[in-house]
Structures are given as structure tokens and as C-alpha cells.
């Protein structure tokens, strides 16, 4: 019998299981993240002065998904807004509600922190994720522009 899915904050001891999920996420988006950036990202999750957080989905002692989020100021509101930056579920665990559970965990944490909004982005071509996102949130209508410096 399978143990119930547990959604919890990442722990320093999770690194070895978090790393393949992180690498899977980066592969999906066809980007390469240098090892020093990965180490810094991981360390930020455990630095009380950083507004960046990590939540994982665990079943039977195995991490099956991750979500990273951060809080930042917004010129249109007093309370900080919450940006859900990364969301990934292991291929073999997809379709089991893990992505939805991770989104809800971020929303609960944002609410508890007094944030009035959680937002995120995805690629237009990410049809699988967009099916879920269309069920749990509304599209803002904004288009992202980016300028590399």
C-alpha cells in the first residue's frame, strides 16, 4: 500500500533527491544552469534573509515534485506578491495531482504570509501544464518581454 503524498518544505538533506528534479526542470526548458548557480539556489532556500522558498512532494520517502517561489514588492499593492518560479513533477508521477498540490501549497503559504496574489508563467507550448493552470488560475493577458544584459 502506498503512503499518502506529503507536501512539505524542502530540507537540507533533500538535496540528492531534489537535484534530479531540478535538472529535469532545466532540461524541459532547454536551459543549462551552472553548478555554482544550482548550489547558490539551493542555499537560498535555507537562508532566512532570502525571500526564496522550496516545497517538495514526497511519497514513500521519494521526492516526486518540486516548486520554488519567492516574495517581492509590487508598486500596485502594499503586501508583497508571490511569484511561483519553478514547478516540476517527475515523469513517472505525472497525472496524479502532484502539480496541483504543489500550487495549492504555495497559495496556502502566500496567504499565510499576507500576500494577496500568486502568479507564474509558462511557455505557450507547454499544453500539459496549461491544462492544469487554466483550472486553478486565470490568465493575466500579459506577454513577457526579456532583454539579456
How would you briefly describe this protein structure?
The protein has 149 residues and is an alpha+beta fold. Helix content is 33%, strand content 27%. The model has no long low-confidence stretch (mean pLDDT 95).
Fold blueprint:
Layout: E1 6-9, H1 15-28, H2 35-44, E2 52-59, E3 62-74, E4 77-89, H3 98-112, E5 118-119, H4 127-136
Parallel strand pairs: 4-5
Antiparallel strand pairs: 1-2, 2-3, 3-4
What do these coordinates show?
With 149 residues, the protein is of the alpha+beta class. The chain has one domain (6-136): Gcn5-related N-acetyltransferase (GNAT) (Aminopeptidase, 3-Layer(aba) Sandwich). The protein contains 4 helices and 5 strands, in the order E-H-H-E-E-E-H-E-H. The protein has helices spanning 15-28, 35-44, 98-112, 127-136; strands at 6-9, 52-59, 62-74, 77-89, 118-119. The protein has a 5-stranded mixed sheet, with helices on both faces. The mean pLDDT is 95.
